[in-house]
Amino acid sequence: MDTPKNYIPALRFKWLTPIYDPLLKWGMREDAFKRKLIEQAQIKPGNRVLDLGCGTGTLTIMLKQSVPQAYLAGLDGDAEVLAIAQSKANQAGAEIKWEAGLSYELPYLDNSFDAVVSCLVTHHLNAADKLRTFQEVLRVLQPGGRFHIADFGEPHSTGMWLASLAMRHVEETKDNLDGKLPGMLLKAGFEHVEEVGHLTSVFGPLTLLRAEKSQTRSR
C-alpha cells in the first residue's frame, strides 16, 4: 500500500512514534477512556470487530483479551506502528489480524463486521475524509452493527473549552471540538447517533460516540 502524501502519523511526525504509547498513557488517560470504549462496545463471543486506525494495537489487544472468542482485526495506514502492534500482540499471546489500509478506502467486503471501534483517529482527517470514512464504516458493518468512537469532542466545561483552544489549530481537530461528528455520522447514513459520555485530558475534551447501521440496510 502506498501511503498518501497527506497521511498524518499518530503524532504527526514519524520521529515521534516511539513516544506515542507513553504520551497516551500519561497525558490522555488512555486506560480510562479505552476501557469505557470497550464497555460501550459490548462485544460478544463470535463477533467480528474492526479497530479502525489501531495504531500500536493497545485497544485491539485489550478488546481481544476482554472477549477472547471474538475475531479482532486492526487496520492502520502506518506500517511502523503496525509492526509495533504485531510485536505487542505476540507478547500478549493475542491472535489478531493486522492489515495496512486507509480509513476511507477499507479493504473489506460489505457487511464484514458486527462492530467497528475507532480511538483518536477522526481528528487526523479533514472534513471530506471524515465523511468518506464514516461511509466506508457503514458499508463494512453488518445491518444493526454499531460504530464506536473515542476522540476529541465538544467541551462540556470552561476548563475544557480553554484546553481546547490550542487543539483547534492542530491537524483537523476543529470539526471535532465544534461538535460536528454526530451530524457527519447522520449524513453518512448512520442512525441512533448519540454521545455516550465524555472525559477530560490535558490536551482537551474527549467524547464517546455511538452510531448504528439500520437493521434493514445491507450496504
Account of the protein in words:
The chain has 219 residues and is α/β, with parallel strands linked by helices. The chain has a single domain, classed as Rossmann fold (3-Layer(aba) Sandwich), CATH 3.40.50.150. It has helices at 20-27, 30-41, 58-66, 79-92, 127-140, 158-167, 174-177, 181-188; strands at 48-52, 71-76, 97-100, 113-119, 141-152, 191-199, 206-212. The two termini are 25 Å apart. Residues 10-17 have low confidence and may be disordered.
Question: What is the fold's blueprint, element by element?
Answer:
Elements (H helix, E strand, L loop, with lengths): L19 H8 L2 H12 L6 E5 L5 H9 L4 E6 L2 H14 L4 E4 L12 E7 L7 H14 E12 L5 H10 L6 H4 L3 H8 L2 E9 L6 E7 L7
Parallel strand pairs: 1-2, 1-4, 2-3, 4-5
Antiparallel strand pairs: 5-7, 6-7
Helix pairs in contact: 5-8
Can you summarize the main beta sheet? 7 strands, mixed
Q: What is the CA–CA distance across the termini?
A: 25 Å
CATH topology: Rossmann fold
CATH superfamily: Vaccinia Virus protein VP39
How many runs of DSSP E, i.e. beta strands? 7
- The SSE order reads HHEHEHEEHEHHHEE
CATH architecture name: 3-Layer(aba) Sandwich
Task: Please work out how many helical segments DSSP would assign.
Answer: 8
Helix content: 25-40%
How much of the residues is beta strand, in percent? 15-25%
Shape: globular
Instruction: Report the top-level CATH class.
Output: Alpha Beta
Low-confidence stretches: 10-17
Strand order of the largest sheet: 3-2-1-4-5-7-6
Class derived from helix and strand content: alpha/beta
Tell me the number of structural domains.
1
Rg over CA atoms, rounded to whole Å, is 16 Å
Mean pLDDT equals 86
